Amino acid sequence: MLRRVDSGEFDEAFPGELALAAAYSVSRNTVREALRRLRADGTVVAGRGQPPRLGRATEITQPLGALYSLFASVRESGQQARSLVRVLDARADGVVAVRLGLEESTPLLYLERVRLAGGAPLAVDRVWLPLALAEPLRGADFSETSLYAELDARCGIRLTGGHERIRAVVPTIGERRLLASPEGVAALSIDRLGMAERTPVEWRQTVVRGDRFSVVAGFSARAGYQLDVDLRA
After folding, report:
1. DSSP string computed for 150-184
2. How far apart are CA 6 and CA 227, in angstroms?
3. Maximum CA pair distance of the chain?
4. Which of 28, 115, 195, 226 suits 147 as a labelling partner, its CA being 20 to 30 A distant?
5. What pLDDT was estimated at residue 222?
6. Which residues contact 199 (CB under 8 A, 6 or more apart)?
7. Which contacts of 153-160 are long-range, i.e. CB under 8 A and separated by 24 or more positions?
């Protein structure tokens, strides 16, 4: 089946279970197991009650070891990158302030967006920054620009490093609605602490559709592990 996929045989339509069972003279249980494996690696996409279809080819591979912008990565892949801004305001959040090394009542700038790739929802993105540093961002239009570009242009701040934690999650009902994600599709949650030299500047929580985004590790005896991000159209 993978050879037929690679040859382009299923580009127009992917056959159903009965057709595959007849073509290979196997049971429907065997076909379902094959489809499960194809769904697991993103080759085939199928929502509940929907016929299977081919997943789009991977558009970008972005080194995760370097500081990266999802907005820039989507554009570099040739897809249109846009954001729907849900919230841009000043607020206090004691938990996030502590993560940024600040006193709990310190005012923060909060930005919440739905990130789009090729016009389709890809991620729900929530970012907190110290208001004292990020106040000029309140006048920015984040629908078609990146946070890091505006942070540099308006505040003179460039992130130089930080760390991330990536874990698999079940999206909430609200997140699934914002992502237009079928029920049963998992997501990846990315927590990022962004630094400008030794100063914490950004705490970010991003929930990304698991059927469009994956992390791939390559390794060698000389270079060790290198992680890449794959984004699917």
Report:
1. HHHHHH-----EEEEEEEEEPPPHHHHHHHTPPTT
2. 25
3. 68
4. 226
5. 66
6. none
7. 157/133, 157/196, 157/201, 158/196, 159/67, 159/194, 159/195, 159/196, 159/201, 159/202, 160/67, 160/195, 160/196, 160/197
Distance (Å, whole) CA 151 – CA 134: 7
- Give CA angle at 144 (77, 159), nearest 5°: 75
Q: Tens digits of per-residue pLDDT, 159-205?
A: 988 888 888 899 999 999 999 988 888 898 989 999 999 999 999 99
Identify any residues that bridge with 129 across adjacent strands, giving them in sequence order.
109
Here the tokens at position 192 are: 């990022």
As beta bridge partners, residue 231 has: 60, 213
pLDDT in tens, 114-130: 999 888 899 999 999 99
Q: Read off the pLDDT of residues 41-56 as tens digits, 9 standing for 90 and up.
A: 667 776 556 677 776 5
18, two tokens: 């009965």
pLDDT by residue (tens digit) across 216-230? Answer: 666 666 656 566 666
Calculate the alpha carbon distances from 35 to 2, 6, 12, 42, 46 in Å.
11, 16, 18, 10, 9
Q: Under a CB-based contact definition with an 8 Å cutoff, are residues 216 and 197 in contact?
A: no
Helix (H, G, I), strand (E, B) or coil at 113: strand
Could you give the 3-state DSSP secondary structure of residue 98? Answer: helix
